[in-house]
Amino acid sequence: MTLQASDFPIINATLNATSGVLLLIGRILIAQRKQTAHRAVMLSATVSSSLFLVSYLYYHFHYMILTKFTYPGWPKPFYYTLLLSHTILAAVLVPMVLVTLNRGLREQFDKHRAIARWTWPVWMYVSITGVIIYFMLYVWFKP
Fold it and tell me: Residue 124: which of 54, 58, 28, 40 has the closest Cα?
């Protein structure tokens, strides 16, 4: 089976949603002090988010597709505001995840917790807004 350009948006949304679910599970596990399970789930969230990033970049650079939101009225400024915040925070998120992951894997738990308090909500926001952006483009307000 060969992937088509039209396959990538749903793949990317699924990877974003998967990351969000894993982040939530990881947060619950660490609150329950289940460190080993937390580590496995957060590594899985990192893999899911990394696969998303590779897929997203491949899709846009290989197919040279620029996505436009054409629906009129209130959804348009909402969409672009959401997209802007999502994009900025996604760019900021990459080094945050790398530092958080590094500190956790090196068992520098005090430093890990200090940055994870910031990384987790930003990562969750980026995952959730990625799915919302997909729905706005391809489900709710498609032309």
Answer: 28
